[in-house]
Write a structure and sequence with these properties.
Antitoxin component of a type II toxin-antitoxin (TA) system. It is built from four helices and three strands; from the N terminus they run βααββαα. The protein is mostly helical.
């Protein structure tokens, strides 16, 4: 992951945005002193949406239910057998 100071990011903002979108690689903007609590990350919108969706599925327990179904190795899942209200 590339890291820029705020000054360098400001000078190269257009190129940073282009690179984040073309290469789908996040970029860190970090203060010159390197305080990790004050860093920011620039990510592609589609990647951000994926992160948010994954966090939501994990927080609701849906992700673990999907993983259990995937691990059963049956090869098929009848969608009508899923109790969507309890996920």
């Amino acid at each position: 992951m590339d890291t820029y100071t705020p000054t360098a990011a400001r000078k190269n903002l257009y190129q940073i945005l282009k690179d984040v979108n073309v290469h789908r690689r996040p970029v860190v903007i970090s203060p010159a002193r390197g305080n990790k609590d004050e860093e920011a990350v620039v990510v592609n919108r589609a990647d951000w949406n994926s992160i948010v969706e994954t966090l939501y599925l994990e927080s609701t327990g849906t992700l673990s239910a999907v993983e259990k179904r995937r691990a059963d190795n049956s090869g098929t899942t009848d969608i009508d057998d899923i109790d969507w209200d309890t996920l």
